[in-house]
Specification:
This protein is an alpha/beta fold. It contains 5 helices and 5 strands, in the order βααβαβαββα.
Length: 144
Amino acid sequence: MKKIAVINGVNLDRLGIREPEIYGSTTLADIVATLKAEAGKLGAEIVDFQSNHEGEIVDRIAKFADEGVKLGIINPGAFTHTSLALRDCIAGSGMSFVEVHISNIYKREEFRHNSFTAPVCDAVISGLGVEGYMAALRYLAKKS
């Protein structure tokens, strides 16, 4: 069965509580449960990870890669705009990633318009709300 990693970065554990006017009321647990259910229908399995610590995310991507996971959905949160370490980890992992953002980062503050991680991902989905995760899953489930 195809494994797809779902990696969420800083503050995404606070979904449903933090700035619901921007991020909505859906929790990260809700998103992961929905992804797991849909992945099963698509013949895939979700393995998920969330951390507020950059190094833990880097370590987990490397572990997923070492375990043979080839596909990933990543929402780095604010690390999107700051982390060269995360960018280099994604680039060197051998995994194909889709970067997801719940809000449209281009309708927000100027500093959010730049993503260090996007150039090393297959695609970026921004502004579809939590549906962006589902779109990323459907794309990756079809990828060989």
